[in-house]
Specification:
By secondary structure, this protein is an all-alpha fold. It has two helices and no strands. It holds the Pfam family DUF2934.
Length: 65
């Protein structure tokens, strides 16, 4: 009589220690967009500063995190 052994499943522990993101990317982008809009509104929606508004909004929100 022969016995067969089933190989043990390997489990990954590398993802178990990773913290989940504070919030998902679409929610973050929405917050950045809202803040960038407010910055543009304060300037009277003068064109040519859209990227600056977005980057400043990202930087401000990063300080809060």
């Amino acid at each position: 009589m022969t016995t067969t052994t089933t190989p043990k499943k390997r489990t990954s522990t590398t993802t178990a220690n990773i913290d989940p993101p504070r919030y998902d990317r679409p929610a973050k982008d929405e917050k950045v967009a809202e803040l960038a809009y407010l910055k543009a509104e304060q300037r009277g929606f003068e064109t040519g500063h859209e990227m600056d508004d977005w980057l400043e909004a990202e930087a401000e929100l990063a300080k809060v995190d």
